[in-house]
Amino acid sequence: MAVSGNKEFHIKADPAKVMAAIVAVERVPEWSSSHKSVVVESTHPDGRPLRVRMKVSVLGVNDEQVVDYQWVGDEKVSWTLVQSDQQKTQDGSYTLVADGDGTNVTFDLTVDLKIPMPGFIVKRGQKIALETASKGLTKFLETF
Fold this sequence. Notes:
The protein is an alpha+beta fold and about 140 residues long. It has two helices and seven strands. β5 (about 75-85) and β6 form a beta hairpin.
């Protein structure tokens, strides 16, 4: 069964800077302890990542995932799972909206696991992902 969640948060940086940090996908392990490695396998004509392979570990479950990214200027990035050992599907996105002193960010994530897991563990993994997306990215931007 697919599990969806979202997190809205504010970052005191303009959308272009926030998106630049998100575009730097190979640096995700610097701000997400779940990501052990990230490799860009191909890029769009503008140089932004298209296909990305990553090794992740959440609550002791290790996975190698391949996702394809789609970019809409500095307003939105979304990704779709292409391959995974542990997931049937994964769809996620960051939507950025300029606000007076920075950027309002909405992070959406839907995951459907291949392996059976108790619901409370799935929800805990989802909570970790949502918190990392907000707190980790925000902290990363302080030094980016």
